[in-house]
Structure formats: structure tokens, C-alpha cells
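Sequence only, no structure available. Ideas?
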Amino acid sequence: MPLCSSCGGNTFIPRVTGDKFQTSFQPEQVASVRRNIELDLEDYEAEICRLLKEKECLERYAAQLQSLDSPFHKIPNEILRQILDDSCDMNSFRAFDLKSRHPTPDAQAVRSKPAMVVSSVCSRWRQNALSTPVIWSRISLYWEFQEDDNWDGQEGDSWENEDTGIFALLSHFLDRSQRNPMTLNLDLVANALTDESALHPLLKQFFGRIVHWQCLSFYCEDYGIGVLLDRAGIPSVSFPVLRKLRMLGSAFNRDLNRDLIPFINTAPNLQMLNLPGRFVISRRNIENHNRIDIQDIFDRFPNLFSLGLTESLLYGDVVAPTPIAYSSKLEILTVGHHDEWEDSYDSPNPVFPILRLPSLKVLHLVYDKPGSGPTDNHGVYFEDNLLDDSDDSDAEETRWSSWGPFRAFVLQSSFQLTTFSIQRLSISDVNLVEILVLLPTLQDFTVDDYGISPIRSPISSEFVDSLHAHRTSPLLLHGARIIPRLRSLRLLNLATLVFKDLSVVEMIQSRWSPAQLHTVGTSAFEVDCLRVFTMTFLYRSEVEASGVYRSLEPIEQNGMMVVIQMSGKTLWL
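Reply:
I predicted one. C-alpha cells follow.
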């Protein structure tokens, strides 16, 4: 359809108008009129298509204007950067992608790098993402070589090309992190050294920035971190901003006592140290003194307030006298326990007989399967026969063998503990109550029974009765009250199929004192108001006890957080 040469407007003029619709035609004129009608219909159809396209364009433009008018666009850039910081976690790299002939990351690989995701939303987000170096400084590298089936080994397609693939991508992240303190997870299953025994170029990018390491989790299948630092050729090793360090041993590298030496006198600001591998606690069990023990850690890291260790102690082991390790600053302690020996150790490796920690506030005890590797594997360790109460053949195998030393540790340290958790440890309800009697300042208590059969679980009806604020219990002597300052109680992953639910309800009601929500009881027989209660059953049906727990509805409406789960379903009170 022709347009006006002056204004560009539509020059469409109908051939058949409305005033001719009632006009009579001669037979010889009918064919001409019908032809004009057909041409007009074609023109009208073309005009309708043009108008519809213009309408769609206007609608899209209106939608764009509406999004630009969104209140989110009025958020200042400073707040947007904080939002990006809060929403971006670790940027994960998997090094077996190095040999791919197609180095461009796929959709899944991009999703594992949140900094890339948020920087691809729009130009404003990209500008703010590039101006927020902290989101680029959180990097996790899992390094395991895996051949690409389509890789033909031609020059330029190799993963060793530093101009493509993960090399270039990591360089972009490190450049954009600028001088921001780094959070780094290095999980090195593949060989970290080249054929010439030099540090691999991929790792050199990280080791060249050790002065920016703030949080480090390190695992290497073949070498300690000291070897890699030496092969990196760094003239002066220093970790001035290192705050958190997590060292893991492996099947070939178990000597964590030696691996910590590079950090001695080089990490003055270290605050959190986690040694889930085999760290020999006592100097008595260290063959030579070119290593450090637990007291060296306390002395050389004066700002340390959080420590994670793993103990090895079989049931019935006799611990020889050993020098005491003392710290007046440590506030958080996590102890992993396992009851299997490893080939390179032929003596117990206890924790509690050695430590004296008067300032301890938070304590976590967890069953730690030996050889679980670098990934915090908290999977099912005792899933088989969870419900078979009659089979007690492995009772000693899963029994927590450090109860006696732990009780002595609590008595001799005289700390005022506020948070205590027990995860996957078999301990009797009698022993648990005996420990809780020694912790009158406890406010937050958690027991996770996952993997513990009901016959060896400490969470019994008698234990719940012992928590009652007024009722006596056969587990308590002289009418004592345990943990009177308790404010949060979590009993998780119980495998039992039968439980006295009424005892749970009555215990919660006895500890609900709204008048003491903002006060602390002064009398030895007064209890604080319980604020949070969570109880989860793995296999019970919600139909069995839902009516009993509905009596807690008034308490929940008045402020207490009550969560009851059965077989993964939360009961609505």
C-alpha cells in the first residue's frame, strides 16, 4: 500500500464506500464492483495487520516503561549492591571442564556462579555488580581431571590453554575481586603439580593472592598446603587478613600437625580454625617436634575464639595422662567423634582430657565418620535396622565412648555454656541428664538423633519428664531442675514409632511463662520462658498424635514458636 511522500501517512482510499451499498447496478457493472470489493478487502486486511503490529509495539513499549517505573528502580545503588552481596554465595568452578573443546559455560555452570548471573540482568545491575568486588571474591574450585569424549588432542583444544576456558574465567573473577578479602574453597583431587614439580598455573592464580585470603577451606589429595606454598615460589608467606581456616586431611595427606606450620606467626588475625581431619591433639603422641599440638595453636593464634577438632576413642580405651592445654579466649568448640582406627595411628586421640576452656560459650558434638572426605558428608551412617530394637549387636560400636572424659571436662573447665548440640551420638538418657545438670546457664539445646536406633536414643519419655519445670523424674536426684535458663529446645529426627506425646505437651506448658519473657529467673527453682520448641519424628504418622499437640495452639498464638513434624509433614496446631 503506497504511503504519502510528504507526511508518510496512509494514502488508502476505499474503492467501494457505504453510500454505494444500496445502489442498483447494471449487470455489466457487477463484475467491476466485485473486483473493487476484493481489492478493498485486501487493503483492509493489510491495514489491520499494520495496526496490530503497531499495537503490539506500543504494548511492549508500555510494559518497558512500566518496569522502568517500578519502585525497585528507585532503590539507590548502595542498597542494590548490598542486595547483590547478600544474594550471591560461592561461585563454583569444576576443573574437569578444562578439557572440553567448548569452553563456554553451559546454563548449569553459569547458575553455579551467582556473580555472573546477577551481572547479566541489565546494564545497571552489571555496572553495580562490577562495582561490588566482594561477590567476585567467593570462589570454590573442585579440581578433578576428566577427559572429554570428543577431545581429539589437537593443539589449542587442550585444557592447558590459558587464554580460554576456566583459566580466562578465573582470571576475570580474580581481577574483578580487586583487593577484596577472598573466601576460597580449594578441593584438589587431581595432581596440583606439573610434570616439572612446579605449582600448576591454574593454582598460581590463587596462591599469588594469599595476602587477600580471608576464609580458606583446603583439601589436597596428595600434598599439604606447605608443599604448594613452597612450589609457588612466594618469597614471603603472609596471611594478614586470614580469619577462618579449615584444613582437611586425605588418604595420602594426614599430617595436619605439620600442615599448620606455614600459618604459625603468619596469620595473626586467625579467629576460626577447623581441623576435621586427623590432627593429633597431644604432644605426647607426636613423634617429632617439627609439628604443633593444641597448646601451640592456643599460643600462636591469640585471637582464636572458635575451634573444630576430631577425636578417636574406642569404647573402653584408657587414656594415659597428658599435658593440659588451656585457653582463656576460646568460646566455640566443635568436636567430631569417630570410633574407627586409621592405619597410621595406633593410639587414642582424645580431646576432652586435654582441654581446659573456662570461657567456652558454644559446644557442638557430632559423630564424624572417618574418611568422609572433604565435603562434610553428613549422610546416613546407621540407616540399616534403625527400627530394629532387638538387634543390639553393634551397641558398643556406636556408643559415645567419651562421656566420662567429657563430664570431667565440664566440671574442670567451669564454663558458662549457653549453646549445646549433640548430633548422631549415642548416649543414654541418664548420662545426658547428668551432663545437663552441670549446665545451668544453657539457653539453646539441640539433639539430632539421625542414624540412632530408638533403643540407644537419649530422647526418651523419661528425659522429657526431666525437663518439666515442676514434676519430678526418676532421672533426677534431690528434685533438681535441669537447664532452668532454657529458651530454645530442638529434638530432631527421632526414629521411634511410639512416644508419650502428652509428656511433651505438659513439659512445654510448664516452661511457658509469658511474664518472664523479658526477665531471667532468680531462684534456683525458677525457669525462664521457653521461646522455641521443635520436635521431628522420621517415621510416625501425623494422624497418631495431631490431636494431642493441638492443645499447644494457644501457646503458639501467644508467642512461642512450636514446630512438630512427623514423616516430613508439619502439624498445623
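Residues 18-69 form one domain.
Hope that gets you unstuck.
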